[in-house]
Design brief:
The protein has 295 residues and is mainly alpha-helical. The chain has one domain. The chain has helices spanning 3-26, 32-54, 62-75, 78-89, 92-100, 102-114, 120-136, 138-142, 148-176, 181-202, 213-241, 243-246, 248-264, 271-288. Helix 6 packs across helix 9 (148-176). The longest helix is centred in the middle third of the chain and has 29 residues, at 148-176. Keywords: Membrane, Transmembrane, Transmembrane helix. Pfam families: EamA. It is a multi-pass membrane protein.
Length: 295
């Protein structure tokens, strides 16, 4: 990877690895679905104002708006709500394992919809990484059983991953159509928030708001850092590296989250978790490393 891509990669995993702290402060008074609406609506408004102040063009064709709306529906809307629903039935560790499969889905969907080549080293690296994630969350996997509740959680979780993967592919398609990432995110997040708001209203959700410092502060952190900066970095990586390679960062995110947790909450690393960490890092190297050209 280039230096720019490396910086974007590190920025993505560090920010998303820390967003669990902000999400903790979002839970409580306000319904999670409504909080996601607030998050992406705020992100959209900030980005649109930024585009206007910087003189970035906001004029796009009806077709372009259609694909930006599709991006919003797949990546900034229902898939986030499905993660919350999945975690009602499954532990966060199992959800993290499920989300690791996005690398394989991006490889398959990229080949299917965009004709992207399937690289052997990417498949091997992804396989090594997902084994590593499995080792990190071994205790939670061992406690899993095939009850109706758990199967329902897997269905919700995998649906979220599938939508996110298709959103990644849509972003790659939009980049090929020369739709800038910042403007695509500005409109996409707005469309996604609108769609989720309509769903929330249809489900009878109450649009409450908590004027407490923890809620408002975490909302701004998730909107600015977790959404604007992280998604801009991540989708720029998709434009540069492809959806398959960029999505490996999502596999590294839970590792970063646990490293932060070890300092913030006293998380203790087991032998299997350390082995998993080594495999995730090793899989990352296999998937993304480009050998130096020989003379």
């Amino acid at each position: 990877m280039s230096m720019k891509d490396s910086l974007l990669y590190v920025l993505t995993i560090i920010i998303w690895g820390s967003t669990w702290i902000g999400i903790k402060f979002q839970l409580g008074t306000v319904d999670p679905m409504v909080s996601v609406v607030y998050r992406f609506a705020l992100s959209s408004v900030i980005l649109l104002v930024f585009c206007r102040l910087r003189g970035l063009s906001l004029k796009f064709s009806f077709k372009d708006h259609g694909f930006m709306a599709l991006l919003g529906l797949l990546l900034f809307s229902v898939n986030y709500w499905l993660v919350y629903v999945a975690e009602v039935y499954l532990t966060s560790g199992l959800v993290a394992v499920l989300f690791s499969s996005i690398v394989f889905l991006n490889i398959a969907n990229g080949a299917l919809f965009l004709g992207a080549p399937v690289e052997r080293k990417m498949v091997v690296g992804a396989a090594v990484g997902i084994v590593g994630i499995g080792l990190i969350f071994m205790h939670e996997i061992e406690s899993f059983d095939l009850t109706d509740k758990n199967l329902l959680g897997i269905a919700f979780g995998f649906s979220s991953v599938l939508l996110a993967s298709l959103g990644n592919i849509t972003s790659a398609r939009n980049s090929r159509a020369d739709i800038p990432v910042i403007q695509a995110n500005a409109f996409g997040m707005g469309y996604g928030a609108l769609a989720l708001a309509i769903l929330a209203i249809s489900l009878g959700k109450s649009f409450d708001f908590s004027m407490t410092l923890p809620y408002v502060g975490s909302l701004f952190y998730l909107a600015v850092f977790g959404s604007i900066i992280a998604f801009t970095s991540y989708l720029t990586l998709i434009r540069s590296l492809g959806a398959d390679k960029a999505s490996y960062s999502i596999m590294v995110v839970p590792v970063v989250a646990l490293i932060i947790s070890s300092f913030a909450e006293g998380y203790i690393w087991s032998v299997s978790a350390i082995a998993g960490l080594i495999l995730v890092v090793g899989g990352n190297f296999l998937a993304l490393h480009r050998p130096s050209p020989t003379a």
